[in-house]
């Protein structure tokens, strides 16, 4: 009896480019949408759950679930890049989905806030493994010519799913209560994501190795010190502190997620305090990530034409202005405008920062550089939860929003002063010669 060869273990020619790898690219976009959906199940419901069912009145205590999520995700982002370089991208992706499976069940059954904290530790680990890996895999597939577009698609899928799921859970919570209905979506997302990743996703490490053989240094000599054989410690140091573009991207990413942590944890409470229904809070909670998600389809591609730096600076400034409007407003319509502006500003920044890291990092250690960048970026959730919670407890929620708005504007100024343009105007690499085998895992 003949057996059918699993699709991930069939050798295929390695070619770089979006068109050449379209089926796998589209599949990975769908997988990352499911990753985003796992995060979106919490955006509307969990802050309200902490206040209404578990009686958390202090803002700092209520934001602990975001802090532990960010801490776990940031740490795992770093090791995910190292593991992806060492063992391959696909095993790391599958491991992330396995960790995600119990998360919605813990949220449904949680008798105490400690269970919610445990669920968010697992969610952070899962997001660090799955989202980091889909980022690296798409960069692997498309090569240098369409890096911004690839990141636009990846982040658009993830954050559009965050927005749609936040909206859906808001309506489910209003109709059926805060538990269990909203979290049933998470069970479905985890099951489908694990199935697709196990049965259909292919390994892409061979694409990165092919690109490394064709890597062309910058003509201005900026990257001459960033050779192929950097140690893990050197990659961390260059990405975090020494290399101007990489370190500028890392601090901007941290501040970007600092204000996202504020939006996630305190916006629903601010809106509820103004008398908005759970359904309307769900609309606002969904509007910001939905605009953020869809907008990246445009901004990622624009960064391939206009360059990275100007979009990052403009996006940080727009986010700061939007946060100021949130602090000033007191009705649904004004907050909806602010949510759209905040989403648009974040869309300008999010895929562009990832593309800039991909521009600078050598293909031999790019996955590790992405991991370090995402370590700093998702550390922003921790900083945001602690800072926003402390300021809100001392001075009120609106004061916390003003504080984060000021930090966001300052971060944009740092990028304007310190970062150089990372995009090189070069042609796409030639296709791989016929018959080059693709690395695979059985």
From TrEMBL:
Signal peptide: none
Broad class of the protein's primary localization: membrane
Coiled coil: none
The UniProt record lists the keyword Repeat: no
Keywords associated with the record: Cell membrane, Membrane, Transmembrane, Transmembrane helix, Transport
One of the record's GO cellular component terms: plasma membrane
CDD domains given in the database record: MFS_MdtG_SLC18_like
UniProt key word Membrane: yes
Membrane topology, from the record: Multi-pass membrane protein
A Pfam family matched in the record: MFS_1
GO molecular function: transmembrane transporter activity
InterPro entries found in the cross-reference section: MFS (IPR011701), MFS_dom (IPR020846), MFS_trans_sf (IPR036259), MFS_Transporters (IPR050171), Sugar_transporter_CS (IPR005829)
PROSITE patterns according to UniProt: MFS, SUGAR_TRANSPORT_1
Domain Major facilitator superfamily (MFS) profile, chain residue ranges per copy: 25-423
Protein name as catalogued: MFS transporter
């Amino acid at each position: 009896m003949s057996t059918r060869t699993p699709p991930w273990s069939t050798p295929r020619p390695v070619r770089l480019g979006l068109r050449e790898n379209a089926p796998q690219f589209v599949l990975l976009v769908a997988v990352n949408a499911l990753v985003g959906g796992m995060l979106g199940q919490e955006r509307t419901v969990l802050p309200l759950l902490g206040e209404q069912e578990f009686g958390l009145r202090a803002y700092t205590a209520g934001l602990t679930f975001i802090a532990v999520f960010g801490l776990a995700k940031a740490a795992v982002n770093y090791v995910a890049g190292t593991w992806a370089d060492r063992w391959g991208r696909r095993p790391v992706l599958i491991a992330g989905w396995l960790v995600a499976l119990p998360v919605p069940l813990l949220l449904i059954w949680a008798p105490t806030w400690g269970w919610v904290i445990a669920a968010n530790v697992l969610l952070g680990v899962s997001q660090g493994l799955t989202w980091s890996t889909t980022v690296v895999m798409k960069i692997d597939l498309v090569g240098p010519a369409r890096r911004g577009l690839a990141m636009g698609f990846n982040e658009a899928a993830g954050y559009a799913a965050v927005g749609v799921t936040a909206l859906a859970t808001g309506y489910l919570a209003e109709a059926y209560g805060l538990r269990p209905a909203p979290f049933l979506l998470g069970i479905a997302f985890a099951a489908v994501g694990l199935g697709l990743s196990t049965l259909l996703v292919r390994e892409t490490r061979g694409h990165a190795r092919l690109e490394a053989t064709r890597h062309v240094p910058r003509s201005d000599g900026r990257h001459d010190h960033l050779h192929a054989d950097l140690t893990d410690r050197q990659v961390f140091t260059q990405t975090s502190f020494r290399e101007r573009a990489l370190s500028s991207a890392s601090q901007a990413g941290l501040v970007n997620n600092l204000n996202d942590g504020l939006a996630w944890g305190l916006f629903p409470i601010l809106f509820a305090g103004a008398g908005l229904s759970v359904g309307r809070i769900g609309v606002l909670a969904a509007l910001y990530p939905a605009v953020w998600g869809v907008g990246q389809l445009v901004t990622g591609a624009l960064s391939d034409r206009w360059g990275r730096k100007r979009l990052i600076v403009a996006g940080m400034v727009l986010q700061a202005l939007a946060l100021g409007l949130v602090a000033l407003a007191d009705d649904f319509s004004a907050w909806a405008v602010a949510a759209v502006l905040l989403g648009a500003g974040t869309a300008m920044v999010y895929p562009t920062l990832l593309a800039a890291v991909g521009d600078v990092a050598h293909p031999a250690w790019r996955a590790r550089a992405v991991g370090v960048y995402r370590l700093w970026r998702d550390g922003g959730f921790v900083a945001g939860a602690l800072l926003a919670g402390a300021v809100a407890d001392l001075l009120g929620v609106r004061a916390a929003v003003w504080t984060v708005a000021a930090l966001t504007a300052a971060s944009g100024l740092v990028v304007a002063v310190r970062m150089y343009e990372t995009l090189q105007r070069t042609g796409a690499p030639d296709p791989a010669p016929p018959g080059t085998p693709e690395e695979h895992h059985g």
